[in-house]
Amino acid sequence: MRDRQRFIRPASLLVGALAWMMMFAAFASAENDPFGKPDTCRILVDQDQKTGQGVIHVSVFNDEDLAALTLPFSYGDGDSPVRCDSVRFRNTRTEFFDMRTASIDTVGQTVLIGLIADMTGKKPPMPKGDGEVAVIYFTFPANQRFHDFVMDTTMVKPFNLLKFVTPDVKAVYPEFDNSQALIRGGIPIRAPEKPKEGENPPEKKAEEKR
To answer: Is residue 208, in this structure, part of any structural domain at all?
Structure first.
């Protein structure tokens, strides 16, 4: 019973946080970034092939204060034997946020991070700056080869996209840098499928069906 209560409480907080952020964004004027230099979310992967342990560093550059952040990521291609274990906020720029949540979908291989700076009216937003906002830990079989893949941002249902929200209720869609987010499994990234001889490519087939 205690275990069930422990699960229900974080799950309820996550649902509440995401609902709040969706409501917040519904009234926001969504813009790419009208504040100057484009805000950016970066992810960097540190992977230890010997131990099968990995760390994903999530960093944010922002040149305006931020009240909330939605950070959805995919960490596999659906078949990858990679497991997301936990998310840490301690010793990051979001350590003292009122709401710090992480929802890990082991089937869809996604992790959705929701961050709200102030829910009590007593804390300031995240100030301008550049640095780590979350750390994601994952494991993979050290003795099993799998296809390499690049960790990416994604859309997590119902409408969670990579997005920042300013204190004056403006949504900002930041740039995303995953140039250092390759997870190595020992098998090169799958190349796009080539059509068989005499067969139209997939995009051509789609056009013919219209």
So the answer is: no
DSSP annotation of 156: B
Tell me what the mean pLDDT of segment 167-188 comes to: 95
* pTM exceeding the 0.90 threshold for the entire prediction: no
2: helix, strand or coil = helix
Please give the structure tokens belonging to residue 194.
């080539």
Helix (H, G, I), strand (E, B) or coil at 21: helix
Give the Cα separation of 50 and 48 in Å (integer): 6
Q: What is the DSSP letter of 174?
A: -
Tell whether the torsion through CA atoms of 196, 201, 202 and 204 is positive or negative.
negative
Domain containing residue 156: CATH number:
2.60.40.680
Residue 126 near residue 65 (C-beta atoms within 8 A):
yes
Q: Is the pLDDT of residue 3 over 90?
A: no
- Residue that the structure tokens 């069906």 belong to: 209
